[in-house]
């Protein structure tokens, strides 16, 4: 499992782009994790799945709501990572009104989740291998804070906790 001080694993995440521009075509676009995090502070939060109750009612809305405060604390981008395809993440982002605030990053084959060691096997519930729920502050590709939830919990990966940590790091 990744730890504070570790570099994020390399690989690719996918994001559904709504508007063509900046070298990005419409639809799913691939982003190299190492290049996308270089020189930036990323508030990354991962969750088991799009449209799931806690994820839709609490997790994503918290980051959308605290977007401006996270930016003021030095966060360059906010990423939501889930084991879903880019089409689902794009639709969920539209539903959650994340545009311009939270990048909805797809880990469709769970490659990133496996590489972090933060997987959650929900096969018994028909959901397969998923990402555990967690949040992290990533500075220039290195994990500076990591908040991993216990099974079925939503206590430490919320936006308010990560905001407090970002404010502490900014001091």
Overview in brief:
Keywords: Antioxidant, Oxidoreductase, Peroxidase, Redox-active center. By secondary structure, this protein is α+β, with helices and mostly antiparallel strands.
How does this model look, in words?
The chain is built from six helices and nine strands, in the order ββαβααβαβαββββα. Strands 2-1-5-4-3-8-9 form a seven-stranded mixed beta sheet. Strands 6-7 form a two-stranded antiparallel sheet. Helices cover 31% and strands 29% of the residues. It has a single domain, classed as Glutaredoxin (3-Layer(aba) Sandwich), CATH 3.40.30. The protein has helices at residues 33-37, 53-65, 67-72, 86-96, 111-116, 159-170; strands at 12-17, 27-32, 41-47, 77-82, 103-106, 119-122, 128-131, 134-139, 142-148. It starts with 11 loop residues before the first strand and ends with a helix. It has 171 residues and is α+β, with helices and mostly antiparallel strands. The radius of gyration is 15 Å and the shape is globular. GO terms for molecular function: thioredoxin peroxidase activity. Keywords: Antioxidant, Oxidoreductase, Peroxidase, Redox-active center. InterPro entries: PRX5-like (IPR037944), Redoxin (IPR013740), Thioredoxin-like_sf (IPR036249), Thioredoxin_domain (IPR013766).
What features would you highlight for this structure?
alpha+beta; Glutaredoxin; about 170 residues; about 30% helix; two-stranded antiparallel ribbon
Poorly predicted runs of 5 or more residues: none
Question: In angstroms, what is the radius of gyration?
Answer: 15 Å
User: Ends: how far apart?
Assistant: 28 Å
Beta-strand content: 25-35%
CATH class: Alpha Beta
Number of helices: 6
Structural class: alpha+beta
As for the CATH topology, it is Glutaredoxin
Can you name the CATH architecture?
3-Layer(aba) Sandwich
Mean pLDDT: 93
Widest sheet, order of strands? 2-1-5-4-3-8-9
What is the percent of helical residues? 25-40%
Tell me about the largest β-sheet: 7 strands, mixed
Could you state the CATH homologous superfamily?
Answer: Glutaredoxin
Q: What is the helix/strand order?
A: EEHEHHEHEHEEEEH
Give the overall form: globular
Number of domains: 1
The strand count comes to: 9
């Amino acid at each position: 499992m990744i730890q504070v001080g570790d570099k994020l694993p390399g690989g690719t995440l996918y994001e559904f782009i709504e508007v063509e521009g900046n070298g990005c075509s419409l639809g799913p676009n691939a982003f190299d994790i190492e290049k996308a995090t270089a020189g930036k502070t990323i508030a990354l939060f991962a969750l088991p799945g799009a449209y799931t109750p806690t994820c839709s009612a609490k997790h994503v809305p918290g980051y959308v709501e605290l977007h401006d405060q996270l930016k003021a604390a030095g966060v360059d981008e906010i990423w939501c990572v889930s084991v879903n395809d880019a089409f689902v993440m794009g639709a969920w982002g539209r539903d959650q009104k994340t545009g311009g605030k939270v990048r909805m990053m797809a880990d469709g084959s769970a490659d990133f989740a496996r590489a972090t060691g933060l997987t959650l096997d929900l096969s018994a519930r028909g959901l397969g291998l998923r990402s555990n729920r967690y949040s992290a502050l990533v500075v220039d590709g290195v994990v500076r804070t990591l908040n991993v939830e216990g099974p079925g919990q939503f206590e430490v990966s919320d936006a308010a906790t990560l905001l407090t940590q970002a404010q502490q790091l900014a001091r």
